[in-house]
Amino acid sequence: MVVSGDEGSPRLDRVLAVRSLGLSRSRLKALILAGHVARDGRALTDPSAHVAAGDVVTIDVPPPVPAEPEGEDIPLDIIFEDDDIIVLDKPRGLVVHPAAGHETGTLVNALIAHCGASLSGIGGVRRPGIVHRLDKDTTGLMVAAKNDRAHASLTAQFADHGRTGALRRGYMAFVWGVPDRPRGTVDAPIDRHPHAREKMAVRQGGRDAITHWELIESYTGRDGKGVASLIACQLETGRTHQIRVHLAHIGHPLLGDDVYGSGFKTKARQLGPQSQVVLEALNRQALHAYLLALEHPGTGDVLHWEAGLPEDMLLLQTQLRAAT
After folding, report:
1. Given this model, what pLDDT does residue 319 score?
2. Which residues contact 244 (CB under 8 A, 6 or more apart)?
3. CA–CA distance, 215 with 237 (Å, rounded to integer)
4. 16 CB-contact burial (10 Å; exposed 0-12 / middle 13-18 / buried 19+)
5. Beta-strand runs (E) in the chain
6. For residue 64, what pLDDT is reported?
7. What CA–CA distance (Å, rounded) separates 197 from 131?
């Protein structure tokens, strides 16, 4: 790469960020610090070093090193895949990223095995770029990046939350009770629960969190009164447990959510016998990420996917409808 005269005498890292497509700023900085960037044959290890017009700057990008998590042959429901991204319908029970207590058997392990050599490396490591997560027992659509360029693009889109771009995330949730209006917005900050650290809570001073919801259908219980509803949600922010916390906050926690809906267990008695059996068998929060739309990192095309309810939630819906 030759520095042109119209660039003046800028910093090395800024020149590379503009001229080097496919590498993130953090990756470029790491390459500079590691001595993989040279000017006229001599290594430059200071990202703030200035370069001048006519300087010949070269970048030696080493091949990605193997990922620390090992690939595992775990079945995946792939919805879309190309050289940049992979979109899948995550099943229940699958943890997204290795962590304490879940070092193996995760989505990352599965993607490393499935994608193989098509992973060109995120930050120099041959691994998928995870830009958002779903809880272990939440099902539905997820996207992961397969290279630095795609990772940077998806990260920016998820940080923007669709305010100015094409990103959309939609969820279907079965909740206790029936809202008193057809649609609404929950605008309430979320932070760690003050006493139960594994939980989140609506708290003043927390991070901004906005959830838009719409009533899809409602179901009556054994007493003829509204007992549960199906609600569609779209996120304007992406906080941990956001939908679960927000819907519980407005008095409509998710069916099957033992963390945020424990006070509603007696509600199950209002369900029909078969609905009670199906809810017990569900054994998880009734939440499914059914909609994902985004701008493709390479082509710029707006892509849109929808995934129908999984079998356990479909069975729940069937029984709830039958009792209505």
Report:
1. 96
2. 135, 253, 254, 257, 259, 260, 285, 287
3. 20
4. buried
5. 37-39, 42-43, 57-59, 65-66, 78-81, 85-90, 125-126, 129-130, 139-145, 168-176, 183-187, 190-192, 200-202, 210-220, 226-235, 287-295, 302-306
6. 62
7. 23
pLDDT at 71: 85
List all residues 6 or more positions away from 12 whose beta carbon is below 8 Å from its beta carbon.
32, 37, 39, 44, 46, 47, 48, 49, 50, 51, 57
The C-alpha atoms of residue 83 and residue 211 are separated, in whole angstroms, by 32
pLDDT of res. 98: 76
208 tagged catalytic: no
Question: Which residues does the chain have with pLDDT short of 50?
Answer: 5, 67
- Catalytic entry in 84, 135, 257, 312: 135
Alpha carbon distance, N-terminus to C-terminus of the chain: 69
pLDDT of residue 1: 62
Task: Give the three-class secondary structure for 319.
Answer: helix
Indicate the burial class of 19 (C-beta count within 10 angstroms; 0-12, 13-18, 19 or more). middle
Model's pTM, two decimal places? 0.78
Q: How many CB atoms lie within 10 A of CB 105?
A: 14
Residue found under tokens 């305010």: 163
Main-chain dihedrals φ then ψ at residue 155, nearest 5 degrees = -60, -45
Q: Measuring CA to CA, how many Å separate 288 from each of 58, 223, 273?
A: 47, 28, 24
In single-letter form, the type of residue at position 112 comes to I
Number of H helices, E strands in the chain: 7, 17
What is the number of residues in the chain? 324
Half-sphere exposure of 207 (CA within 13 A, CB side): 12
Residue whose tokens read 């370069």: 51
Burial (Cβ within 10 Å: 0-12, 13-18, ≥19) of residue 125: middle
CA 78 → CA 69, 81, 133, 138, 175, distances in Å? 21, 7, 16, 17, 28
Owner of token pair 């039958």: 322
Token pair recorded at residue 242:
């956001």
